[in-house]
Specification:
single chain; 212 residues; 4-stranded antiparallel sheet; 3 helices; binds N-oxalylglycine; binds manganese (II) ion
Length: 212
C-alpha cells in the first residue's frame, strides 16, 4: 500500500492562511505544492488531455449551461475521490485538513470539497464572475493551486480578486495556493501561455448534491 505523506509542513502555515482568509477574505500560500508535486499533477493532467478527457467548461453548471468561449476559455475534468494519483489524494487530504481547521476556528460548517483539473489554452480568460451563484449557493471557499512552471508577469493569466473596492492581482506561479470567499468577484486575465491548475470549492453540503 502506498503511504500518503502528510501535508508538507501544513501546520506551519495553516494558521496564518486561515487568519488571512478571515481578515481579508482571501489568502495566498506560495509553494503549497513543491516543484516535484506540481510537475507530477501537471503530467497527470497532460496525460488526461492526450486521452481527450478535458472538456470545455460552461458557465453555471447544468442549469443554463452555455459554452461561450470568449467569456470562459478553460477546459476541465472533475476530480474523483478515488482513482487519482497519490499526489492528488494528498492534495485532497490537505483540503480536508484546512476545512476542519476552518470549521473549528471560523465556525463554518464545511462538509465537502469538489474540484477539477483546469487548463486554459493560450489566449483565453475567464471574465469577472462569482463562484457562489444563484444555482449553487453551496460554495463557501474557492481554492486554486497553480501548476505551470516558471510563470512570468508577461505570461499574463493573473487572477484578480475584487474586495472592498480593491483589486488584488495574483500571479499563477507554480505551487501557489490561493483561497478566497466564493462570493467575491474575480476574473482570470487573458493568458499568453498554457495555464494549468487545480480549482476547487469547499462546500456546506456533500458535493454530489450541489449538482441538483
Ligand atoms: C474559476 C476561477 C481562477 C483561477 O475557475 O472559477 O475563477 O485563477 N479560477 O484559475
Ligand atoms: Mn471563479
Amino acid at each position: 500500500m502506498t503511504t500518503i505523506k502528510f501535508p508538507r509542513n501544513i501546520n506551519e502555515f495553516a494558521d496564518q492562511l486561515i487568519d488571512n482568509l478571515a481578515a481579508h477574505s482571501y489568502a495566498l500560500q506560495p509553494n503549497f505544492l513543491s516543484q516535484e508535486e506540481s510537475n507530477a499533477v501537471l503530467k497527470h493532467i497532460q496525460a488526461l488531455q492526450d486521452e481527450d478527457e478535458l472538456k470545455k467548461a460552461g458557465i453555471g453548471k447544468q442549469l443554463k449551461f452555455d459554452v461561450r468561449e470568449n467569456l470562459r476559455g478553460d477546459f476541465i475534468r472533475w476530480i474523483s475521490k478515488s482513482d487519482e494519483p497519490v499526489i492528488v489524494q494528498s492534495f485532497l487530504q490537505r483540503m480536508d485538513f484546512l476545512m476542519q481547521l476552518l470549521n473549528r476556528t471560523c465556525f463554518l460548517s464545511l462538509k465537502d470539497f469538489e474540484a477539477h483539473y483546469t487548463f486554459y489554452p493560450t489566449n483565453t480568460r475567464y471574465i469577472k464572475h462569482r463562484d457562489r451563484f444563484q444555482h449553487n449557493a453551496h460554495r463557501l471557499i474557492s481554492v486554486v493551486c497553480y501548476l505551470a512552471s516558471d510563470w512570468k508577469v508577461a505570461d499574463g493569466g493573473q487572477l484578480i480578486i475584487y474586495n472592498e473596492g480593491e483589486a488584488h492581482e495574483i500571479l499563477p506561479a507554480q505551487g501557489t495556493l490561493v483561497c478566497f470567499r466564493s462570493e467575491l468577484e474575480h476574473e482570470v486575465l487573458l493568458t499568453n501561455r498554457e495555464r494549468y491548475s487545480i480549482t476547487g470549492w469547499m462546500l456546506d453540503q456533500p458535493a454530489k448534491l450541489t449538482f441538483l
